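TL;DR need structure tokens for one chain.
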Amino acid sequence: MSDIPPLYNLETYDYELPPELIAQYPSRERTESRLLVLKRKDGSLIHHQKFSAIEAYFRPGDVLAVNDSRVFPARLYGQKPTGGTVEILLLRLPQEGQPVPALYRGKRIREGLELSFGGKLRGKILKILEGGKALILLESSGSLLKTIQEIGHVPLPPYIKRSPEIEDLFRYQTVYAQKPGSVAAPTAGFHFTEELLKKLQKKGIIILAITLHVGYGTFAPVKTKDIRKHQLHEEYVEISPEVAKEINRAKEEGRAVFAVGTTTLRALEFAAQQEGKVKALAAWCDLYIYPGFRFQVVDHLITNFHLPKSSLYILVAAFAGLENIKRAYTEAIKRRYRFFSYGDAMLIL
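>> reply
TL;DR here they are.
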């Protein structure tokens, strides 16, 4: 018998998902995803056939906070001097002359190994790290970032069992993505179109952008039996003084703050940890949210359906209540909602 309370036992956060419900492609149009609305207060569920129905849940003056991080093509295919192939997944946006951590897949990878990624880009393995990672130094004959944009591939999640296609270049990206730096997309934002955002603005909704560069750790399963012992990888966050001020004013005036995605929620709650109010920052965030966490900023969360035993599933359970989330996911599976990055959406009120 485990002496870990059920609320903190990893097995509590497991569920069975039929594989065919893992979306392999996005919906035909962004707003054609389905929307499941969960009311935290009474646990009730409302089903909508189209995400665009979300408009009805906003009141003039409410804040919609989005993450404007942009996914960069972090997957690179290289060759060793012997001709053998190596697959590299960069874990951060590389800077000229600075080594970057990466996941690698290939045989006989060693320190000092030189790699070629086509004519313009070369790499050198500086250090082998734990967990299939290495520190790699990249050099380009032109602009490093421009070269990576040209030859890199979209880093689709491991549960999408196909090669990236041209459509993924723009669909595995939000319409408001601005700042390159993510190796996984903030997927809750996929459901918004420019047209829907304009409609919300006309209704008096204040749309504000923060930046959190999503790391590959977002896909990492929690492995500690006691979820409280899990540690998140750090991710870079930026919140401007203007955005912090607007959100704090909304909170003071009793207007609701909607966060688009777990990344936006984590960034805002991280920025409010010390003073209870959002403060402007440019910092590394390792805030791990699990049941018992006291939310100070976000009132409502727009999110996708998350992997079992993941930190994201644990986060939504903390926000909505474990039993509410379990009931919502059971219902979503029963009604054949589409799960994960390219799947359907959920609004937690």
